[in-house]
Design brief:
This protein is of the alpha+beta class. It has 10 helices and 19 strands. Helix content is 36%, strand content 32%. Strands 1, 2, 5, 8, 9, 11, 13, 16 and 19 form a 9-stranded mixed sheet that branches. The longest helix has 26 residues.
């Protein structure tokens, strides 16, 4: 078995040091797997915490759906000849409001189970909408005479109806409506009401609504009106604005946030009027949680839903930070081994492969301690505690290996500096690559300068030092 002794050349000592470092990639890779496993358990725990409460909610509507009669032709083969027949079918005309104003108040709450937690919320949505037939209604190919306005439906979409609160209120021109479950008589998610829309032929229809719902993590709105105004406020201080539309104005403070959205149907790229078969997918009939879903266009094609989304994020995702920290594990092992190698080659102190391996194992253990403590006391306190424990352990062990506390304090100071730099890199995400590359350049330049006079093929530590 090869040993780090005076009979080996500095080059062979470097080679064996690299082999020990490569052997430590196995436990380091296991740390990465451990982080992913704990993150998966955390997500499962969050799902169980929010089970039955309501998922990430996406709201849409109201839209007015009016059944109408249409003539459909079909060609069949009879007696070897093509015969075209005309049949009367019933379809639906979907009318989006000209103007809609929605105000949403989000009341967040952090729920915990053991060491895990999830963000849930209660929210209230209130507003008003105005419906009117467009002047160019005839362009859709549907005449007023074909419509059955007495059987119209006013539909509201909610992606997870389990979270719908009690007693939602909807009124048309001041008259309350009786609400029904589902996104419409043909199915869907949300609620709707039958309405006599005959008055719509002579004047606009004014709709007022107010309902509460529950959800977790995120809320989104699928705008459909000619002019959509959505005002959102919450006491949660860490919002993330996403989706296809960003707020026209927003204000984020420690006490919460406020955001205002303004979206027109020209930005949506579709008309206020669409037609389709009964039972065809429609946006107000309920949409899945915030995602890319399909919605019918006036031509009958299917296209993605465009949403404005707000996520209630937790400011510290400890699993992603631990995972990023573990990716720097090779640097910790490399710098520490390099310092030991310099004492071995230049200082003449004999360091065996087992001693390299034990100190490297302690460095890998840092990331396990960081993960374990972070789940309980938070990332920053866990980082301080784990780094102090490993730096102290390796410093004490280096004093025994190197035979000098002065040399050991050099190892301890190196580790403290490395942990401090790593914490800075984790905090400065935008400039972490730049700072890290500059530090590596400086470290490499220092090593090259310190080892410029070493004959790596010479035998014996003292001969190499000379």
């Amino acid at each position: 078995m090869l040993k780090f002794d005076g009979e080996r050349t500095p080059g062979s000592k470097l080679f064996l040091t690299i082999l020990v470092g490569l052997a430590l990639t196995i436990p380091l890779f296991s740390v990465w797997l451990l982080v992913y496993d704990r993150q998966s358990q955390s997500e499962q725990a969050s799902t169980s915490i929010t089970a039955g409460w309501g998922g990430p909610q996406a709201i849409s509507g109201p839209v007015l759906v009016v059944p109408y009669r249409a003539t459909a032709t079909e060609t069949v083969i009879q007696g070897g000849q093509s015969v075209t027949r005309a049949n009367q079918v019933q379809r639906e005309l979907t009318l989006a409001p000209e103007i809609i104003e929605i105000s949403t108040d989000i009341r967040p709450e952090v729920r915990k189970r053991s060491i895990y937690r999830a963000v849930v919320y209660n929210a209230g949505a209130s507003g008003r909408a105005r419906f009117a037939f467009p002047p160019d209604l005839a362009r859709t190919g549907v005449q007023l005479a074909q419509m059955d306005l007495t059987r119209a439906e006013l539909r509201f979409g909610l992606s997870d109806p389990r979270g719908l609160g009690a007693n939602p209120k909807v009124a048309v021109s001041g008259r309350p409506l009786r609400l029904q479950p589902g996104g419409g008589s043909s199915g869907g998610r949300g609620f709707f009401a039958w309405i006599d829309a005959t008055a719509l032929t002579s004047q606009p229809l004014l709709v007022e609504f107010d309902f509460d719902f529950r959800g977790n993590a995120a809320i989104s709105l699928a705008p459909q009106a000619g002019d959509t105004s959505w005002a959102v406020r919450s006491s949660w201080p860490h919002p993330s604005f996403g989706g296809e539309f960003l707020p026209a104005a927003r204000r984020v403070r420690d006490s919460g946030f406020e955001a205002t959205y303004r979206v027109g149907n020209l930005a949506l790229g579709r008309s206020l009027v669409s037609t389709g078969d009964i039972g065809a997918p429609n946006l107000a009939g309920g949409i899945p949680p915030p995602s890319r879903v399909e919605v019918p266009k006036p031509t009958g094609e299917i296209g993605p839903v465009q949403t404005a989304q707000i996520s209630l994020i937790q400011p510290v995702d400890l699993y992603s930070r631990v995972n990023r920290a573990a990716k720097y594990g090779f640097l910790f092992i490399g710098f520490t081994f390099l310092a030991l190698l310099m004492f071995d080659v230049i200082g003449g102190v004999r360091v065996s492969a087992v001693e390299y391996l034990l100190m490297g194992a302690a460095l890998v253990l840092f990331f396990v301690l960081l993960l374990a403590f972070a789940e309980v006391i938070g990332f920053t306190p866990a980082y301080i505690l784990a780094s102090a424990a490993i730096a102290g352990l390796n410093t004490a062990y280096a004093a025994a290996v190197l035979g000098s506390w002065r040399r050991a304090w050099f190892i301890g100071g190196l580790l403290v500096a490395l942990y401090a730099v790593l914490y800075i890199l984790l905090s400065l995400e935008a400039f972490s690559l730049l700072i890290g590359s500059l530090l590596l350049f400086a470290a490499l330049a220092g090593v090259m300068y310190g080892t410029r006079g070493i004959d790596w093929s010479a035998r014996g530590g003292k001969e190499a030092a000379d």
